[in-house]
Amino acid sequence: PAMAARLLLRAARPLLAGAGRGTGFGTAPSTALSTAPPPEKKRWLRAYLELQRLQAPPQRRSEKPNWDYHAEIQAFSHRLQENFSLDLLKTAFVNPCYIKSEEERRRQLGLDKDAVALQLQDNTGLAERGLRFARAYLAQCFEGAYPELPAKGIEALVNFLTSQELVSYVARNLSLQDLALCRDFPVPPDVLQRTFLAVIGALLESSGPERTGIFVRDFFIPQLIGKDLFEIWEVVNPMGLLLEELTKRNTSAPEPRITRQLGVSTVLPVYFVGLYCDKKILAEGPGETLLAAEEEAARVALRKLYGYTENRRPWDYSKPKQGLAAKKAVSSN
Amino acid sequence: RYVRQLQRLQLLFSPTASDARGARQFVEEVAQDFARQHPDVVLYVSPHSGPGPAPVLRAEYLNGTVREEVIASKTSEEIMQLAIKLANQSGLDIIRIRKPFHTDNPSVQGQWHPLTNKPSILTVQGPRLQPQ
User: Fold this and answer.
1) Residue A325 · residue A213 · CB < 8 Å
2) I want to staple A285 with a disulfide (CB 3.0 to 4.6 A). Which of A86, A92, A189, A296 is the partner?
């Protein structure tokens, strides 16, 4: 109806009422409605202009109207419920590629050498400190929560949590790509990772290791929900690893036996192979062939031994009582 | 921890139009209180002079969605309630939810498969193992 179309196009004024009737603009997605110039009066031009607007390259939020950097940074620190020192936070958002591109631009505009050199520090130092702290803290968390897990497993988990995709995904959903100062847009994932680690470094400098530890725990550990241990940690020979673990605990080697089997002579057989230690069941796993089933049973046994099953206790997010844990992380840096 | 999903609210209105009266009252009286109560939302107030499009409250969320609400001929209390509603929303699209329930753990004791309650090949049943 004409009323709805007029309201949708925000053309409630009688001047533009004639222009707002009967186009496809009302059904455009929500992103297209933002910053729309006043609708053209010539009906045959509107489709072309809309196409131009949709095909334009994405622009940084800082170049669109209504942007106040200082206010945005303050809101950012309130959103994360953390007290940042604003200078450290501003240095954390400055990337080296931004400094280089700014100096290039100033040199091309023909300024003196004094004016060319920017007095900005970039965030590499903060990023390194943040990365070291995050890795040490996460490793300590996992050692406390899964004491049976070997060092390689903990390293694999920490590497997964500080990997580029995960950190850039978390950073993107915390609006870091609007605040980070960088040469290209949309921001590449390694720059986002560096910026987020620099933010963690800035928090470390401003609030101390305890609060930073709580921050890292709140934003990184929920990314492990729903993930299986062996999706994150690539183990080539689970049977060999299982034998090592059992020799450490002085138990005999596991004996694989077929527990159940279905459809042996068909295209899709299912074998359940159980691993028995001294005639007591250790784990049971399914598979398509006997070898696959044995490997799966070894993986299930490893999960049970390391305490990383699906029915383990969920992570403890309560407030920590002592500051000893965080102090250990700082001293190990 | 809770992270408010609303990034910024932009209030675009005209200082002379008649249906932007509620928006002007909101800016004069209530906007500062709203900004103080929600320190993690950036509130931009941009009056555009002269006759233009209808007054609108644009909300941008952390996942990139931009939601615009027309505030023509609304009182300042209604605009305040609308702003609070937008501040408590997440940026997910408002579409029909197919089911009002969702669970990440559909089964507690393990999902049934045809071999769940079948005895295994290895159980040995002899005359001595039966209960007396």
Assistant:
1) yes
2) A296
Mutation site, B2, B4, B6, B7, interface A, largest A CB count within 10 A: B7
A13 touches chain B (CB under 8 A): yes
Per-residue pLDDT of chain A (333 residues; tens, 9 = 90+): 444 444 444 433 433 333 333 333 333 333 334 445 666 778 888 888 889 888 988 888 888 888 888 999 999 989 888 888 888 888 888 888 888 888 888 888 877 666 656 777 888 888 999 999 999 999 998 898 888 888 888 999 999 998 999 998 888 888 888 888 888 888 888 889 999 999 999 999 888 888 899 999 989 988 888 788 888 888 888 889 999 988 888 888 888 888 888 888 889 888 888 898 887 888 888 899 989 999 999 999 999 988 888 888 888 888 776 555 454 555 444
Residues of chain A in contact with residue B72, where contact means CB-CB under 8 angstroms, are 12
Ranges of each domain in chain A: 69-229, 235-306
Indicate yes or no: CB of A13 within 8 angstroms of CB of B66: no
> Of A269, A295, A297, which is closest to residue A281 (Cα–Cα)?
A297
Q: Which residues on A lie below 8 Å from B52 (Cβ)?
A: 13, 38
Residue of A nearest to B114 (CA): A262
CATH architecture of A235-306: 2-Layer Sandwich (3.30)
Strand partners for A286: A272
Please report how many Cα atoms fall inside a 13 Å half-sphere around the Cα of residue A327, on the Cβ side: 4
Contact A30/B at CB under 8 A = yes
| Alpha-carbon gap, residue B30 to B83, rounded angstroms | 11
Query: Which residues in chain B are closer than 8 Å to A225, comparing Cβ atoms?
Result: 104
Amino acid at A160: F
- Tokens for A64? 């669109």
What's the order of all strands across the beta sheet hosting B6-13?
Answer: B42-47, B6-13, B56-61, B66-70
Indicate the DSSP class of residue B98: S
3-state secondary structure A194-244: HHHHHHHHHHHHHHCHHHHHHHHHHHHHHHHCCCCHHHHCCCCCHHHHHHH
Q: B6-88 architecture in CATH? A: 3-Layer(aba) Sandwich (3.40)
pTM of the model: 0.78
Best CATH choice for the domain A69-229 from the list 3.40.50.150, 1.10.1520.10, 3.40.50.2000, 1.20.120.80: 1.10.1520.10
User: ipTM of the predicted structure?
Assistant: 0.81
